[in-house]
Every structure is written in structure tokens, then in C-alpha cells.
Design goal:
mainly alpha, two-stranded antiparallel sheet, 2 strands
Length: about 140
């Protein structure tokens, strides 16, 4: 293997394919993998501003606005004026969005489990250990953080 660039390429490819598979499974629920961080932030209970949701989901500007629009159309979120500042709005969950908390993890688990069926148990365990170690190493080596 050619080192870091190849590992980064393969991880990116795996992430994109996994996201597409999860998106296909979540489409019937009116959701997507990209919406998951927004939903997680709202599952904590408090309404949030679009800017707060953008920070927590690591999505900015127009893409967040489009995502929130799609989520509102799907009936997952609702908007209301912020009583403290009428220039802002607050985003909250609808009952449908709140129910996804019980469903989304299971959908993602089934998609990943199906993909991992192609690996023998020893390789699955090694993959999980290697990815855990990689995440820890990346956290430890965060320059400037």
C-alpha cells in the first residue's frame, strides 16, 4: 500500500458508499445520513437555531438551509420565530422526527451488518480494532487543537 494517501482514499470511498447505502435505506423514512447529525442535536431536547445546527453538523450556509428545507418538507422538523430575537428562527422536532431516534440506529446497523457479512469474524474484529486505533491516533495528532 502507498501509505497515507491510499488509506485516506479507501476510507473516503468506504464512507461514501456506506452513506449511499444508508441513504437508500433511510429514504423510505424521509431522512438521510447527512441529516443524522442535525437530528442528533435536536434529540437532545432543546430547539436550536440554524447556525447552531450547522456548527454541530459541520455544514454551513446554503447546504444547511437546503437540508433544513428538505427536513421540514419531510415533516421531521418545524420552524418558529425566536421570541428573544425575531430576526432568527428556532428549529425543533416534530413527533415524526422524534420517532426516528428509535429507528435510525437500527437501519444503519442493518446496512453495515449486511456489508460486514462478507468478512469473516476475525477480519471484522480486526477492522473494528484498526479503525478504533486510527480514530484515536487522529484525535491525538490534531495540530493546533
Amino acid at each position: 500500500m502507498d501509505g497515507g494517501a491510499e488509506v485516506a482514499r479507501l476510507l473516503g470511498l468506504a464512507e461514501r458508499r456506506l452513506s449511499r447505502a444508508v441513504d437508500r435505506a433511510l429514504a423510505v423514512l424521509g431522512s438521510s445520513a447527512a441529516q443524522w447529525p442535525v437530528l442528533e442535536a435536536l434529540w437532545e431536547g432543546a430547539e436550536r437555531t440554524p447556525a447552531e445546527l450547522a456548527r454541530s453538523a459541520h455544514v454551513e450556509g446554503p447546504p444547511m438551509s437546503r437540508m433544513l428545507g428538505r427536513m421540514e418538507q419531510a415533516g421531521l422538523i418545524k420552524r418558529r420565530d425566536d421570541p428573544a430575537d425575531h430576526r432568527r428562527c428556532l428549529i425543533g422536532l416534530t413527533p415524526k422526527g422524534a420517532r426516528l431516534r428509535e429507528v435510525l440506529p437500527g437501519v444503519a446497523d442493518r446496512v453495515v451488518s449486511h456489508a460486514l457479512e462478507h468478512l469473516d469474524p476475525e477480519r471484522r474484529e480486526r477492522l473494528a480494532g484498526d479503525l478504533t486505533a486510527l480514530v484515536a491516533a487522529l484525535e491525538e495528532s490534531r495540530p493546533g487543537c
